[in-house]
Amino acid sequence: MKRKLVFILISVIFFSGCKKILSPADENIRDLSEIYNDAAFAEGLLLNGYVRLPGGNYAFTEVATDDAVSNDPSNTYRLMATGKWSSLSNPMEQWTSSFAAIQYLNLILSETDKVTWATTGQYTKEMFNDRTKGEAYGLRALFMYNLLQAHTGWVGGSLLGVPILTAPQDSKSDFRVPRNTFEECIQQIYKDLDLAEQYLPLDFENITSASQVPAKYAGKTTIADYNRVFGAYNRQRMTARIVKGIRTKASLLAASPAFKGGTTVTWTKAADDAAAVLDLNGGLSGIAGNGHVWYAGSNASEINGLSAGLNPREMLWRRNVSDANSLEKDNYPPTLYGNGRVNPTQNLVDAFPMANGYPINDPNSGYNPGNPNAGRDPRLGLYVVVNGSKEGSKGSIIYTKKGSTDDGLNAIPTSTRTGYYMRKLLREDVSVDPANSNTQKHYVPYIRYTELYLAYAEAANEAWGPDGKGSHNYSAREVIEAIRSRAGITQPDNFLASISSTEDMRKLIHNERRLELCFEGFRFWDLRRWKESLTEPAKGVTINPDGSSVVSPVETRLYNDYMLFGPLPDSEVQKWGLIQNAGW
């Protein structure tokens, strides 16, 4: 009886509602026209640009260079560096995400004038519209920069970039758009950045006086309404100051040796663009005293105190602060319950000079091969765990020599392969002990000022030599002197003083960039834009129980000459008939 009643009930429901059941449901897709009266929906198009910004976590592309190896056999950069890099498998690829972001940014740029950004306040609708345009132009330029860095290449004597898309695409669009030249792409970046600066404030900060309202809005709005649109609430969104930083990065890329002959961008322009940011930061006096240790260990209180989008002095632009311990889980040595993933190489360790500033192979350095870590540049101890280093909240001693603990060379799968562990970026007040774990605040920078000071030094040296200043108040030598002094190099810096040629200063600047920016994702791109070798074997040190040591190759780097320029994704080449970069 119960079975019959259930069957009858189901039958009644089915036949009485069969029309609705058998009809397709409405798609939950909003029409684009709905953005005109829904500012939050419209802003979602812009925010799609922000969420696609690379850099949410550290990628550690150094594993693809002579600076590091990984103990993870499946690490994509390890596979890439050992012969698995192709147009079908490219962990450096920026094509998909960047063009997706550009599509959303083009959409909002094409529609923003029609959006009712605000219904109250004096001139707020117009100011929101301006801000949206400025952010979108700045973000579009940044994504174009990412595309050029990853996918520019020489083809038949021409330096090609990517297709320039400045209008949204739809089902009726012609997707077979050819690649523009690198020069056309870099000029498009400059055009977008110039437009962004016209619409954006230097910083998002609250004003307190009507006299602080920019001239273009003076007399049209109130202090409260201006702050509503351009006030401190919007910190860490695109600003004119950030735009200047992006311009610096783009100009440094374009002026570099790998692009020589394919662009009109000069070292002078790169230096001038960098100086435009540095001057706003106070020039040499703006170099943050803790800029070389911004990453937590000795600056925990500074990071813990960040709020309301504020920046430490070292930061131009950063991601949000979050509680985490994943970096420590991945990179602490095994005895601290970590996986020891990123292992600095002997190559990188040897790049650190002595504390007196001389390279370890210089007769004046005082380097002792029998005690190789004594008297070294203080940055070595800050960035790398060597045999006998103390690490973690309890100051545990880490022994990387063979036959000691699980931290020893190749002791277990999560041990170091080089005799070193990475220290930089880790907060040593984090514990990942399963019985007593905790998290601490972390953040990832988009642009640090140290990067920009080094960019100026590089460009100024190439443009005017070690002591030339162009139209500015400081030289390449003076910038490098300030950075090395901050690092703890003994003053006076006699090695720096001994340098007189552009060539020797270039070597020093390249090395300072290698040290200051290690493990932040620069080395791979720098080697390529400098046209320097990618095939330097990654070396490590074996420290025997008796204290003797042997340096030997750990991992061979399998790159071909054409790999100074990366590939376009093979799928895009096949679908749209794009010209692939030479060799791929």
Automatic annotation (TrEMBL):
Record field: transmembrane: none
Domain of life: Bacteria
Main location (coarse class): membrane
Record flagged with keyword 4Fe-4S: no
Residue ranges annotated for the RagB/SusD domain, each copy included: 328-584
InterPro entries per record: SusD-like_N, SusD_RagB_dom, TPR-like_helical_dom_sf
Keyword annotations: Cell outer membrane, Membrane, Signal
Domain SusD-like N-terminal: 75-215
Cited Pfam families: SusD-like_3, SusD_RagB
Localization per Swiss-Prot or TrEMBL: Cell outer membrane
Record-stated family: Belongs to the SusD family.
Protein name from the UniProt record: RagB/SusD family nutrient uptake outer membrane protein
